[in-house]
Amino acid sequence: MNENSISADTLQIGSHVSMGGKEMMPGSVKEALSYDANTFMLYTGAPQNTRRKAVEELRIDEAHALMDAHGMKSFIVHAPYIINLANTVKPETRQLAVDFLTTELDRTRRMGSQILILHPGSHVGAGAKAGIDSIIAGLNEVLSKPSDVCIALETMAGKGSEVGCRFEELAAIYDGVRYPERLRVCFDTCHVHDAGYDIVHDLDGVLEQFDHYIGKDQIAVFHINDSKNERGAAKDRHADIGEGFIGFDPLYRLVHHPDFPGIPRILETPWYPDPQNPGQTLPPYKKEIAWLRTGTKPED
Length: 300
Prior knowledge:
The protein has 300 residues and is an alpha/beta fold. The chain has helices spanning 24-34, 60-69, 91-111, 128-142, 167-176, 189-194, 203-213, 248-255, 285-294, and strands at 13-16, 39-43, 76-78, 115-118, 150-154, 183-188, 219-224, 226-227, 238-239, 265-267, 272-273, 281-282. Helix 1 packs parallel to helix 2 (60-69) and helix 3 (91-111) packs across helix 4. The chain has nine helices and twelve strands. The longest helix is centred in the middle third of the chain and has 21 residues, at 91-111. An eight-stranded parallel β-barrel has the order 1-2-3-4-5-6-7-10. It has a two-stranded antiparallel sheet with strand order 8-9. A two-stranded antiparallel sheet has the order 11-12. 34% of the residues lie in helices and 15% in strands.
């Protein structure tokens, strides 16, 4: 490991965890702890719909007490996929996006996180410029209400009519929003790779491109995922660490990159089949977190 890289002791790394049942948010913390994680990411409900429990039912105080007891300082919230600020074709869809994003932003604040990750949206055939303009207008409306929560726009793979697969598109959103201080970026390794950026052979060059258009200081969270596709495929299919076209070494270099101390690294890798129980799957996160902390490659 490079002497200037982040040490395993100070690394903030975790995974997506669930939240539901009777345990709610304390269950999320317990799941993260079972993976030896010191941070985590959750959705406030199913990412495919807007059905949500009342904030008072989430047992937030108990969750924070458990986090404090284990030295866990922060967590990340991810907005549902159905929020599409870029849709100018169906006004009712865009209005739902504005209204629900406003609600999710407040829910994130009340849960105690300062970062809400958002997929910028899809222009559904209207063109990237129309989509970007619609995103800007929607964010201006949502962010007009004071809050200490930032929206982290996620880098996208370029699937379909997604907006945000190029750094220039994210920069255009930043330039148009009246409250850029309330924006951040979630840098997803699978998405950036699938969008065509060569993080395998030129990680620092890609990061310099990002710095040119947006600024490396705007990255608030990394999604650490391998990819089932070759670079530039624009398909967005995550692979387990070391089992895709990115590979272990580039992901390890990014996880320990000295330019991003204290920035959470979140795994969203696929669960794998349980060899003892056909039809069941197991989370890969505990072993992947250990690999990425220590530099032990999966094949070692």
